Amino acid sequence: FRLAVVQLQVSSDKANNLSKVRRLVKEAAGQGGKVVLLPECFNSPYGTSFFSKYAEKIPGETTQMLSEVAKENKLHLVGSIPEEDGGKLYNTCAVFGPEGELILKHRKIHLFDIDVPGKIRFQESETLSPGNSLSTFDTFCRVGVGICYDMRFAELAQLYNRKCQLLVYPGAFNMTTGPAHWELLQRAALDNQTYVATASPARDEAASYVAWGHSTVVNGEVIAKAGHEESIIYADILQYLADVRQQIPISSQRRDDLYAVTAVQQGSG
Ligand SMILES: O=C(O)CCC(=O)C(=O)O
């Protein structure tokens, strides 16, 4: 099946963000996209000062639009928004199916709290609460869902890998950690013999948080990669994994007697 990744130029104008999503998802569907990935916080500028203003209930305005667009174009649609629920805010990735149905919500498990002196300090936990479950869904293959910083936690990818062929991470790395780690972390999934797709917002040099861009799809090799401007990239998800997993059978060669990565709770999916 064809995966499309929309690297949206996100602005502070929510209505404009949503109407662009409608247009670009339609374009992706016209190119054969069956699963379409949108960036992290695609309806809002990325930053702790914006989350409460742009946050919505699910269902709400943005997810209603996602549901309609998934149904109109008969595809799976994945992307994160700031969510408000019970007085708390979450960074939540909603997944809609081709009938417009909400398949799952993944709330970012690992909040992005870092402090690199002189470069970047960011504390998502000042405003957001973390999710507490792992999330997978079934389409043409089984898909594991994480959001941005979740990608740094290899244990999550390893757990997903046992049952998934594709991992998706809406993300927004920055001008410090983007060049250092964005592609490397995705390619590290080579260890897991899994496709990995990331969707970033396009770069906006005037934004308070400047996204790195470079949405990417890898299967160990980079098979599709955007620049930093608004664009859609496509990747055909093929038989490759079954072949590689048979040729280099690391999943059956693990030394379970020596080490283990275990989920404490399975969560959804
Ligand atoms: O891990 C990083 O370097 C960036 C993470 C990030 O931007 C996020 O989690 O939103």
UniProtKB/TrEMBL annotation:
According to the entry, every stretch annotated as the CN hydrolase domain falls at 1-239
Keywords for this protein: Hydrolase
Please tell me whether the keyword Membrane is annotated for this protein: no
Q: Name one GO cellular component term.
A: mitochondrion
Q: What is its EC number?
A: 3.5.1.3
Q: Which reaction does it catalyse?
A: 2-oxoglutaramate + H2O = 2-oxoglutarate + NH4(+); 2-oxosuccinamate + H2O = oxaloacetate + NH4(+)
Give any GO molecular function from the UniProt entry: omega-amidase activity
Q: Does the keyword Repressor apply?
A: no
Which superkingdom is the protein from?
A: Eukaryota
The record's annotation in Pfam families points to:
CN_hydrolase
GO terms of biological process kind: asparagine metabolic process; glutamine metabolic process; oxaloacetate metabolic process
| UniProt family annotation | Belongs to the carbon-nitrogen hydrolase superfamily. NIT1/NIT2 family.
Write the protein's name: omega-amidase
Q: Which organism is it from?
A: Poecilia latipinna (sailfin molly)
